[in-house]
């Protein structure tokens, strides 16, 4: 199984491969809109394991696999043996013997790594506590569609040093941009990840200073899934870490802003930005569909 390709973080693909997936996603989006038949994978089955809630990820993977001619199967720990303690290793062996590709949304990143190590088919990380690489494919596609290449640009992250922030650190490396992270003390991304990427990534505590001249400003919820009990403490800690019109006035005049959604208007993002007529946030959400179709196509073709 060592030769099976997986997509657990952005580092599993080379920069050239990632850019090829984004180019393919843009092409597949145009084909889809033109009504082109994209059923290149009849009979292929995607197993979708969700240990956390989802709207965009579930809809985009299930719709995407159907559009590719295959079938997607929703598997919840609540009603599979995964929730009753069957080891990940055993589950991976069994599930991968029956499906062609697997997508997992779960808590610990080690769970997707263990699953992938024992899977005979490609495994896609659809969000862990540490990374959300599929969202980055959609975000990078959205930037390219609206502004062209992100290489050499400045990206500002405002908020928690969470799974999305850590995926942006990997993206800075793979897509070659400067990343400034504005997060309150105590909510930094992994120190190891910061150290490994110190040539491109810096912590700038003041959100307005971090946003100065930025080409892209990104945020996410203050309390991620699994941190619901910390909501109140985080509302205090993150006060002032909101993207809004005032913050965007410090960015480049052509700057875009993004949010992976779901969003909390009035917390990490103002209602005004969420509801602006020219926001790209809805394109960003839709692009999950196109980017993941390109990703699944790439992985299925590599698996032969
Ligand atoms: N952005 C994202 O992954 O959304 P869902 O949690 O709705 O899948
Ligand atoms: N950081 C958020 C992203 C949701 C798509 C979470 O993990 O809940």
Automatic annotation (TrEMBL):
Q: Where does L-ornithine bind?
A: 163, 220, 224-225
Q: Where in the cell is it found?
A: Cytoplasm
Identify the residues that bind carbamoyl phosphate: 54-57, 81, 105, 132-135, 260-261, 288
Q: Signal sequence span per UniProt?
A: none
A cellular component term from Gene Ontology for this protein is: cytoplasm
Residue ranges of the Aspartate/ornithine carbamoyltransferase carbamoyl-P binding domain?
5-144
GO terms of molecular function: amino acid binding; ornithine carbamoyltransferase activity
Keyword Cytoplasm tagged: yes
Pathway stated in the Swiss-Prot or TrEMBL entry: Amino-acid biosynthesis; L-arginine biosynthesis; L-arginine from L-ornithine and carbamoyl phosphate: step 1/3
Kindly indicate whether the keyword Lipoprotein belongs to this entry: no
The catalysed reaction is:
carbamoyl phosphate + L-ornithine = L-citrulline + phosphate + H(+)
**Ranges for domain Aspartate/ornithine carbamoyltransferase Asp/Orn-binding:** 152-298
What GO biological process terms are annotated to this protein in UniProt? citrulline biosynthetic process; L-arginine biosynthetic process via ornithine
- A Pfam family reported for this protein in Swiss-Prot or TrEMBL: OTCace
Its keywords, alphabetically, are: Cytoplasm, Transferase
Cite the InterPro entries for this sequence: Asp/Orn_carbamoyltranf_P-bd, Asp/Orn_carbamoylTrfase, Asp/Orn_carbamoylTrfase_sf, Asp_carbamoyltransf_Asp/Orn-bd, Orn/put_carbamltrans, OTCase_ArgI
Question: What EC number is given for this enzyme?
Answer: 2.1.3.3
Family classification: Belongs to the aspartate/ornithine carbamoyltransferase superfamily. OTCase family.
Q: What is this protein called?
A: Ornithine carbamoyltransferase
User: Could you tell me which species this protein originates from?
Assistant: Seongchinamella sediminis
Q: Which gene encodes it?
A: argF
């Amino acid at each position: 199984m060592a030769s099976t390709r997986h997509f657990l973080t952005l580092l599993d693909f080379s920069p050239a491969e990632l850019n090829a997936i984004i180019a393919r996603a843009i092409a597949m989006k145009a084909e889809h809109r033109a009504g082109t038949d994209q059923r290149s994978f009849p009979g292929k089955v995607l197993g979708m394991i969700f240990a956390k809630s989802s709207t965009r990820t579930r809809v985009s993977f299930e719709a995407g696999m159907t559009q590719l001619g295959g079938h997607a199967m929703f598997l919840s720990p609540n009603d599979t043996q995964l929730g009753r303690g069957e080891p990940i290793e055993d589950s991976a062996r069994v599930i991968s013997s029956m499906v062609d590709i697997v997508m997992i949304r779960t808590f610990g990143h080690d769970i997707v790594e263990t699953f992938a190590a024992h899977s005979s088919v490609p495994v896609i990380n659809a969000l862990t506590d540490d990374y959300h690489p599929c969202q980055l494919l959609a975000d990078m596609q959205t930037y390219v569609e609206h502004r062209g290449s992100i290489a050499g640009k400045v990206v500002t992250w405002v908020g928690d040093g969470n799974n999305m922030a850590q995926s942006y650190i990997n993206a800075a490396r793979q897509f070659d941009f400067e990343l400034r992270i504005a997060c309150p003390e105590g909510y930094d991304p992994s120190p190891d990840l910061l150290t490994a990427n110190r040539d491109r990534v810096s912590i700038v505590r003041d959100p307005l200073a971090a946003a100065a001249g930025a080409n892209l400003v990104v945020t996410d919820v203050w309390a991620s899934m699994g941190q619901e009990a910390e909501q109140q403490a985080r509302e205090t800690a993150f006060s002032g870490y909101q993207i809004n019109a005032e913050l965007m006035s410090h960015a480049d005049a052509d700057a875009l802003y993004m949010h992976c959604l779901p969003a909390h208007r009035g917390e990490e993002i103002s209602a005004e930005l969420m509801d602006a007529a020219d926001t790209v946030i809805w394109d960003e959400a839709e692009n999950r569909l196109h980017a993941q179709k390109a990703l699944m196509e790439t992985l299925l073709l590599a698996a032969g």
